[in-house]
Amino acid sequence: MLAQEWSELRPEVQATLANVEQRWAGLDQAQRQRYLQGAERWLAMSPQLRERALVRLQRWQNLSDEERQAIRARFQQFQSLTDEQKARVRKQFQRYQSLPESKREALRNRWESLSPEKKRELIERIQDRRNRGGE
Q: 6 with 14: CB under 8 angstroms?
């Protein structure tokens, strides 16, 4: 997909990227390419997926700069894991997601009530247990 001039974009792509029209001419090829790829993904989404994406975008925009930075740091940390470690994290998250909402909320509340020291201690115990072969 060649990063084109604004006038060469399909009307539906222009509509999707309307908020960057004024800046388009000043974007480099790589930036244009990223926008075009995003627009194509957006256009391929079902209405339900678009709604979900909008909700998530709104949630992201409502975060403080510190919260966004913490999320970016956790993402980078996840990216640095081995494939095996990533698979284990995904499996654990799926198990968490399969819990009833009331249990997930209780776990979140319990975690939030812990002091930073207790959180570190718990994380270390979990890591030690994993290193010994348990899960």
A: yes
CB 18 within 8 A of CB 6: no
User: What would the pLDDT profile of 58-77 be if each residue is shown by its tens digit?
Assistant: 999 999 999 999 999 999 99
Instruction: Record the pTM.
Output: 0.61
Concatenated DSSP letters of 70-118 = HHHHHHHHHHTS-HHHHHHHHHHHHHHHHS-HHHHHHHHHHHHHS-HHH
- Distance in angstroms (rounded) separating the CA atoms of residues 41 and 43: 6
Paired tokens of 29:
């090829």
Residue pair 96/104 in contact (Cβ under 8 Å)? The answer is yes
d(CA 66, CA 74): 12
Both structure tokens of 12? 């539906």
Element (H, E) at 57: helix 47-61
Closest residue by Cα to residue 8 from 17, 44, 43, 41: 17
DSSP label of 17: T
AA identity, residue 54:
L
Contacts 24+ apart (CB under 8 A), 97-101: none
